[in-house]
Write a structure and sequence with these properties.
Layout: H1 2-19, H2 21-25, H3 29-43, H4 47-60, H5 62-82, H6 87-108, H7 131-147, H8 154-170, E1 183-184, H9 185-201, H10 209-222, E2 234-235, E3 241-243
Helix pairs in contact: 4-5, 5-6, 5-7, 6-7, 7-8, 7-9, 8-9
Length: about 250
């Protein structure tokens, strides 16, 4: 009995010790965020460093270049709201990222942010656009307007929002293509987030409430994995599931 108690005590002590190990290595969120933000600020201030880093991302996966820009903009938008004294700096960086991305798309087209198989077939939607590219650009523009509306960006933002709304509305089950006849649900939810942020920035948060409600209802009917209740990762434009939630980003 004494040995049993000793063994149980040892197991209990080990469990407590192992479960608390992370406390020795945990870092406060600000301690992690500050150097990351400083790096991104420097990156978008120094053209040479930015060109090298973005080229490295594109060589690995061109999608990562656009996604890195989107998440940087969202991070700076959060920081601008949290740190009003630094808002001008963060907004200036957001503007540089947005302007560079708009210029890149205008100059080289959407395919510079897409994998080569985007050329395998035409998009089924008549507009022939990628919701991945349009949605992430729309999010960047909408986030900027949500932090501090810019009259100079109002029409550009509206244009990109109308593009993603059009893609969603034209889809047979309210889904937009990221690649030809290939729908990534992540890209669709990003597009919806852009629409909601834009509407909120205009003081009309319910402007597209009907679209949001119809999209959720359609998603539940067509792209929810019945076993888990989670959204599928990838479908066709008609909503035929190609990858389950285990592939979701």
């Amino acid at each position: 009995m004494r040995l049993l108690r000793a063994g149980l005590s040892l197991v209990l002590a080990a469990a407590i010790w192992l479960s608390s190990l992370h406390l020795w290595f945990a870092r406060a969120p600000d301690a992690v965020a500050a150097p990351l933000a400083a790096h991104q600020l420097a990156l978008w201030t120094t053209a040479t460093a930015r060109t090298h880093e973005l080229a490295t991302l594109r060589r690995a996966n061109p999608e990562w270049d656009l996604m890195a820009r989107m998440f940087a903009v969202l991070a700076f938008a959060n920081l601008a709201l949290r740190e009003p004294t630094q808002r001008a700096t963060y907004l200036a960086t957001i503007d540089r990222i947005v302007d560079a991305t708009l210029e890149d798309v205008e100059r080289a087209g959407m395919h510079q942010f897409l994998l080569p198989y985007a050329h395998r077939a035409p998009f089924r939607d008549a507009a022939g656009r990628s919701l991945f590219v349009d949605g992430e650009l729309a999010v960047m523009l909408a986030a900027r307007q949500l932090v501090e509306p810019s009259a100079a960006r109002r029409e550009t933002t509206r244009t990109w929002i109308e593009r993603v709304v059009g893609q969603l509305e034209r889809g047979p089950v309210l889904l937009g293509e990221s690649y030809p006849d290939e729908v990534w649900i992540f890209c669709n939810t990003v597009a919806l987030a852009a629409v909601r942020m834009h509407d909120t920035s205009l003081g009309t948060p319910e402007a597209h409430a009907g679209l949001m409600q119809r999209w959720v209802a359609s998603a539940r009917a067509h792209v929810v994995d019945r076993a888990t209740g989670l959204l599928a990762a990838k479908t066709t434009l008609d909503g035929v599931v190609q990858e389950g939630p285990e592939g979701s980003t």
